[in-house]
Amino acid sequence: MYEDKKFKMPIHLIVLDLLGAVLAALGLVEWFTDLSFTPEQLKFEYYYIAMVVCGVLMMVPMHVHIFRFAMNKSTSNTN
User: Does 3 have pLDDT greater than 80?
Assistant: First the structure.
């Protein structure tokens, strides 16, 4: 009998995605506004772009997990 796999999102991927979203949002806020949340000691040239890129890269593993689950489910349905 065919049994459907339940989609389970690991908590570490949720936390990583949340931290990445916050980092990317802070980078975008500092890039496009005059607000600054980063201490002066941590600032370097174009630091806000690095914040956005790192934030987006932190969000990638969750999307890969979702994509792999969807691909496995679609190939198992064709059999």
Answer: no
**Number of structural domains in the chain:** 1
- Taking only Cα atoms into account, the Rg of the chain, rounded to an integer number of angstroms, comes to 18
- Report the C-alpha gap between 44 and 5 in whole angstroms: 47
pTM comes to 0.81
SS (H, E, C) 7-69: CCCCHHHHHHHHHHHHHHHHHHHHHHCCCCCCCHHHCCCCHHHHHHHHHHHHHHHHHHHHHHH
Q: Are the C-beta atoms of residues 23 and 54 closer than 8 Å to each other?
A: yes
Establish if 3 belongs to a structural domain.
no
Does residue 50 fall inside a structural domain? Answer: yes
pLDDT for the residue 1? 46
Q: Which residue has the higher pLDDT, 70 or 76?
A: 70
